[in-house]
C-alpha cells in the first residue's frame, strides 16, 4: 500500500513536470474537413516567417506579432545550402539556428509547419540547394536519379533527426504539426513524365518512412501519393480540391504580395482583395491558410536568387521587412481571422448550402444539425455594390467582397470594409553620421598574377567559382602592330552583369581603363556588349569581369543553366580585320583582392593602406572599396542605409553582409490600383522612375554603441559621402469608419456550450509606443474621397468634424 502511494505520487510529479515543460504529446491527423489536433478539427491560420531572413533577436517579436494577428501556425522553409555549405560540414548558428527558431515558436505558444523541401524555390539562391550538389558525379536534380535521391534523403533525415532529438514534433510534445517534402513539383512532374512520377512516389515514401508522427504535405503537386496531402499555392485557391476525397483542403501559400527585382517596380496587393481571396477559400470548404509571406524580411549576404532578386524581401507582407506592423494589412486580416474563428464549429462540422442571391451574388450557409449557423454572403461583381435579401434581412455588399455572419444574421466582417487605421512609413534621418571615410582601389593591374587557372577558350562561370564569389575575371592578352581604332564585341553574354577593362602597357607606365559595362534582365539573361576599346601597338591585356546577381532558383534542371562569358569574343575595326579571341589562352581569377584580404572584416579592413579624407570620396571610380565608421543611433527604431548616391555593389556592417545594393531604376506601369478584380503583380505597381531599392536594412543587433565599421565595394562608381543612416518610423495614421455598418451591433453567439461575445465595433487611431499624435491633418464626417495621405472633402461634410477629432485627440 505504501509502495503504491509512492508510485502514485511519483506519477503525479512526473505529470506536473510534463505539464510544466509543455511535453504533452498530441496526435495530429486529418480527414476530409480539416487537420485534427487531438481529435478536434481546426481551422488553422498560418504565416510564413523565414528564420535566415531576419535575426535571432527579431524572432520572438515577429512571432508574437503573428500570434496577436490571429495566427495559429508559423511556416518556414529549411534552407539546405546555408546549413551544409560543403559536403558534411554543417552550420546551424546565428540566423541559421533552426532549432532555436522552432523553440521560439513553441515558447510563444504557436504551432509550426516545417517545409523541409529541401528544394524551396523562395527566390533564394539556387533554390536552396547547395551548389556543390551540382558536381556530384552522375547527378540530375529533382528526378528519379540515384545520386540526387541519396543526397536529398541524407539531408532530410538530418533535419528530421535534429527535430526528434529536441522533441519538437507534436507527437513528442513539440510545436511541429506538419512537414512538407519537395516543393511546387507539379510543373516538373508533368515535363518529366514517368521519371517525375517515380521520383515523387519515392519522395513521399521516404518522408513518411521517417515516422515523425505528423502529416506530410506536398504543395502544387496534384498527384501527391497517399498519405501525403496535396495543397494549393497562388493568389487565389477557391478553385482547388485535394486529389482524394478524404484529404483536407489546404492553401500552403496565399501570396500577400510579390517579390521585387532590380530594375522592376514594387508590387503591392490590396488587403481588401487578399481578405476576399481568403474568405472565398474558406466558404468553399478550405480549412488551412498560410500567408506567404507574413514577414518577408531581408536577403542578407548573397542569398537572393533569381537572378536580380532584390535584397529586400518585404513581399508586401503584414509585418514589413524591418519587423514593423503594416497597416491596414495586418489589422484587417486580424479582424478577418476573428470572424473566421467565430464560425469555426459550423465550418468544420458541415458542408455549405449554396444559394443564389443575384447575378453575381451567393450565400454559402454552414448549418450543422446541432448548434451554430454561419453564412458567407458574396458579391463577385467587380464594379457594382449589391443589396441582397437573406434570412428576411437586407444586406449591402460592396463590389468584390464577402460578408461573414457567424450567426447567419449579423455581419461582423466585410472584406472590402477596412475598419483599422492606415499607417504611413517614412525613412527619417538619424542622429548618427558616417565619418572617417577611406578608399582603396581594387587592384586590377596585377590581374592574372594570382589566377586560379588557365585554359584555352572560355569557361562557364559557376564551374570556376563554385559560387564562392559573385565575381569572375576573364583575362587574355592581345599583341598588335600599329592600330588606330577598334571595337570589342561580346555577344550572348549570360553573366547577368558584365564590365570590360583594358590594361595598357606602355614603355614608361602601366594603367587601366574601363571600356564599358552592360547587364541583362531576369527574363533575358542573354545580352551583348559592344563598345570601343582604345588599343595601342604592342601587348594589351584585356580583362572581362562577369558579375553574378544571384543564381537561378526555379525551372526544369536549372542546375544545367550556364552563366558567364561564353563567347564569342572578338575585336573589330582592326587593320587586319576582325580578330576572334574566343579560343585564345584565358586566365581566370575568382573573386576580388579585397575579398581575399577580408576587407569586410574589421581586422582585414585595418591591415592595408587606404586613402583618407576628401580624396576617398571624390574619385567616384568603379571597382573601389570604401570604409567608414559610425555610432549607433539612440532609440529602438529599425535602421537602414540610404544608398541612393551609389551605383552597384555589396555592403557589410561589422563584417556582416547586408546584401547586394544596386540603384537600378524601376520601369513599369504605376497607374492607380483598385482592390476589386483579379489580382496579378502587374496590377498594383509603385516606384516607377525611382531606384527599385534605395534603403537597406541594418539590424540593430549587429551594432556596437560606438565605432561601427561600414565597408562597401562599389562596382560602377558612386558618392559614398552622401550615404546616410536613417530610421524607419510611422509618421502618419488615418482611416475610415462606415456609418450604419452592421458590425456596430453588440451581440453574442452561443455554441459548443460557450458564449462568445462580439464587442461593439469602434474605430481608433494610435501611434507606436513612445510617440503621440501631434497634428490632425484632415477630418470629415460626410462623403470624403481619396486615400491615406490624400483625403478630400466630398459633397457632404460636417463643418465641425475637425474640431471634434482634435478634442478627442488632444496634443501632448
Give an overview in words.
This protein has 812 residues and is α+β, with helices and mostly antiparallel strands. The protein contains 15 helices and 42 strands. Residues 1-22, 504-511 and 740-761 have low confidence and may be disordered.
Cα end-to-end separation: 71 Å
How many helices does DSSP assign?
A: 15
Report low-confidence residues grouped into runs of 5 or more: 1-22, 504-511, 740-761
Helix content: 10-25%
3D shape: globular
What is the CATH superfamily label of the largest domain?
Answer: Glycosidases
CATH architecture of the largest domain: Alpha-Beta Barrel
- What is the CATH C level class of the largest domain, in words? Alpha Beta
Structural class: alpha+beta
State the strand order across the main sheet.
4-5-6-7-8-9-10-12
Based on CA atoms alone, the radius of gyration comes out at: 30 Å
Q: What's the structural blueprint in terms of helices and strands?
A:
Elements: H1 2-21, E1 28-30, E2 35-37, E3 40-42, E4 44-49, H2 56-68, E5 73-77, H3 80-83, H4 98-108, E6 111-117, H5 146-165, E7 176-181, H6 186-192, H7 194-208, E8 216-219, E9 229-234, E10 250-255, E11 266-267, H8 271-283, E12 288-295, H9 329-342, H10 344-349, E13 353-356, E14 361-366, E15 374-379, E16 386-390, E17 393-397, E18 401-405, E19 413-414, E20 422-429, E21 435-441, E22 453-456, H11 461-465, E23 471-480, E24 487-493, E25 497-505, E26 510-519, E27 527-532, E28 538-547, E29 570-574, E30 577-580, E31 585-590, H12 593-596, H13 602-605, E32 611-612, H14 615-618, E33 624-630, E34 639-642, E35 648-653, E36 656-662, E37 685-686, E38 695-698, E39 708-714, E40 724-734, E41 747-751, E42 754-758, H15 801-808
Parallel strand pairs: 4-5, 4-12, 5-6, 6-7, 7-8, 8-9, 9-10, 10-12
Antiparallel strand pairs: 1-2, 2-3, 11-37, 13-14, 14-15, 15-18, 16-17, 18-19, 20-40, 21-32, 21-33, 22-31, 23-28, 23-31, 24-27, 24-29, 25-26, 25-28, 29-30, 33-39, 34-38, 34-40, 35-36, 35-39, 41-42
Helix pairs in contact: 2-4, 6-7, 8-9
Amino acid at each position: 500500500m505504501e509502495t503504491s502511494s509512492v508510485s502514485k505520487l511519483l506519477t503525479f510529479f512526473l505529470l506536473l513536470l510534463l505539464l510544466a515543460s509543455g511535453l504533452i504529446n498530441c496526435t495530429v491527423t486529418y480527414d476530409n474537413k480539416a487537420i485534427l489536433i487531438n481529435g478536434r478539427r481546426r481551422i488553422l491560420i498560418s504565416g510564413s516567417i523565414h528564420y535566415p531572413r531576419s535575426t535571432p533577436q527579431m524572432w520572438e517579436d515577429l512571432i508574437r506579432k503573428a500570434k496577436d494577428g490571429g495566427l495559429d501556425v508559423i511556416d518556414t522553409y529549411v534552407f539546405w545550402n546555408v546549413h551544409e555549405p560543403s559536403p558534411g560540414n554543417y552550420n546551424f548558428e546565428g540566423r541559421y539556428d533552426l532549432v532555436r527558431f522552432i523553440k521560439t515558436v513553441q515558447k510563444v505558444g504557436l504551432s509550426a509547419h516545417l517545409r523541409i523541401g529541401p528544394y524551396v524555390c523562395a527566390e533564394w539562391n539556387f533554390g536552396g540547394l547547395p551548389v556543390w550538389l551540382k558536381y556530384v558525379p552522375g547527378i540530375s536534380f529533382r528526378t528519379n536519379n540515384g545520386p540526387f535521391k541519396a543526397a536529398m534523403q541524407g539531408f532530410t533525415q538530418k533535419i528530421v533527426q535534429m527535430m526528434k532529438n529536441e522533441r519538437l514534433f507534436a507527437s513528442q510534445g513539440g510545436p511541429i504539426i506538419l512537414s512538407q517534402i519537395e516543393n511546387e513539383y507539379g510543373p516538373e512532374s508533368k515535363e518529366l513524365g514517368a521519371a517525375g512520377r517515380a521520383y515523387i512516389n519515392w519522395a513521399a515514401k521516404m518522408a513518411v518512412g521517417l515516422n515523425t508522427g505528423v502529416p506530410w504535405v506536398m504543395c502544387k503537386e496534384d498527384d501527391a501519393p497517399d498519405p501525403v496531402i496535396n495543397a494549393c499555392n497562388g493568389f487565389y485557391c477557391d478553385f482547388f480540391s485535394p486529389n482524394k476525397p478524404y484529404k483536407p483542403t489546404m492553401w500552403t501559400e496565399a501570396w500577400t504580395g510579390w517579390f521585387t527585382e532590380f530594375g522592376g517596380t514594387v508590387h503591392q496587393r490590396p488587403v481588401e482583395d487578399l481578405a476576399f481571396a481568403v474568405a472565398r477559400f474558406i466558404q468553399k470548404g478550405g480549412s488551412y491558410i498560410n500567408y506567404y509571406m507574413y514577414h518577408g524580411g531581408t536577403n542578407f549576404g548573397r542569398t537572393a536568387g533569381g537572378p536580380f532578386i532584390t535584397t529586400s524581401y518585404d513581399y508586401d507582407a503584414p509585418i514589413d521587412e524591418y519587423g514593423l506592423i503594416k497597416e491596414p494589412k495586418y489589422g484587417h486580416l486580424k479582424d478577418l481571422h476573428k470572424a473566421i474563428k467565430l464560425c469555426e464549429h459550423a465550418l468544420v462540422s458541415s458542408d455549405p448550402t449554396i444559394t443564389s442571391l443575384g447575378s453575381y451574388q451567393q450565400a454559402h450557409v454552414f448549418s450543422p444539425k446541432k448548434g451554430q449557423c454561419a453564412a458567407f454572403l458574396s458579391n463577385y461583381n467587380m464594379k457594382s455594390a449589391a443589396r441582397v435579401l437573406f434570412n428576411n434581412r437586407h444586406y449591402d455588399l460592396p463590389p468584390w467582397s464577402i460578408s461573414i455572419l457567424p450567426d447567419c444574421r449579423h455581419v461582423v466582417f466585410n472584406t472590402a470594409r477596412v475598419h483599422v487605421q492606415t499607417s504611413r512609413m517614412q525613412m527619417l534621418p538619424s542622429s548618427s553620421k558616417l565619418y572617417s571615410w577611406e578608399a582603396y582601389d581594387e587592384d586590377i593591374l596585377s590581374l592574372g598574377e594570382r589566377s586560379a587557372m588557365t585554359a584555352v577558350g572560355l569557361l562557364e562561370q559557376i564551374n570556376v567559382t563554385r559560387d564562392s564569389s559573385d565575381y569572375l575575371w576573364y583575362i587574355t592578352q592581345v599583341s598588335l602592330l600599329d592600330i588606330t581604332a577598334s571595337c570589342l564585341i561580346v555577344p550572348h553574354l549570360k553573366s547577368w552583369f558584365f564590365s570590360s577593362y583594358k590594361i595598357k602597357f606602355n614603355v614608361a607606365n602601366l594603367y587601366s581603363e574601363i571600356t564599358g559595362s552592360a547587364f541583362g534582365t531576369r527574363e533575358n539573361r542573354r545580352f551583348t556588349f559592344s563598345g570601343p576599346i582604345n588599343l595601342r601597338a604592342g601587348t594589351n591585356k584585356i580583362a572581362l569581369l562577369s558579375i553574378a546577381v544571384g543564381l537561378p532558383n526555379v525551372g526544369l534542371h536549372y542546375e544545367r543553366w550556364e552563366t558567364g562569358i561564353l563567347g564569342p569574343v572578338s575585336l573589330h575595326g582592326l587593320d587586319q580585320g576582325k580578330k576572334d579571341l574566343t579560343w585564345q589562352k584565358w586566365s581566370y581569377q575568382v573573386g576580388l583582392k579585397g575579398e581575399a584580404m577580408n576587407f569586410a572584416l574589421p581586422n582585414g579592413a585595418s591591415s592595408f593602406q587606404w586613402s583618407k579624407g576628401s580624396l576617398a570620396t571624390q574619385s567616384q571610380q568603379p571597382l573601389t572599396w570604401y570604409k567608414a565608421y559610425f555610432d549607433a543611433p539612440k532609440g529602438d527604431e529599425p535602421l537602414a542605409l540610404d544608398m541612393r548616391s551609389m551605383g552597384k555593389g555589396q555592403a557589410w556592417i561589422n563584417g556582416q553582409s547586408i546584401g547586394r545594393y544596386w540603384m537600378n531604376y524601376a520601369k513599369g506601369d504605376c497607374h492607380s490600383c483598385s482592390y476589386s478584380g483579379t489580382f496579378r503583380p502587374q496590377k498594383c505597381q509603385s516606384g516607377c522612375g525611382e531606384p527599385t531599392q534605395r534603403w537597406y536594412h541594418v539590424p540593430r543587433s549587429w551594432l556596437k554603441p560606438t565605432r561601427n565599421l561600414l565597408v562597401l565595394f562599389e562596382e560602377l562608381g558612386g558618392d559614398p559621402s552622401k550615404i546616410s543612416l536613417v530610421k524607419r518610423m510611422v509618421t502618419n495614421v488615418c482611416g475610415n469608419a462606415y456609418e450604419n455598418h452592421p458590425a456596430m451591433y453588440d451581440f453574442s453567439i452561443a455554441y459548443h456550450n460557450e458564449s462568445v461575445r462580439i464587442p461593439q465595433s469602434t474605430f481608433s487611431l494610435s501611434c507606436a509606443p513612445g510617440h503621440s499624435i501631434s497634428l490632425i491633418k484632415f477630418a470629415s464626417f460626410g462623403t470624403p474621397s481619396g486615400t491615406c495621405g490624400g483625403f478630400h472633402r466630398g459633397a457632404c461634410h460636417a463643418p465641425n468634424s475637425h474640431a471634434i477629432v482634435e478634442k478627442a485627440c488632444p496634443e501632448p
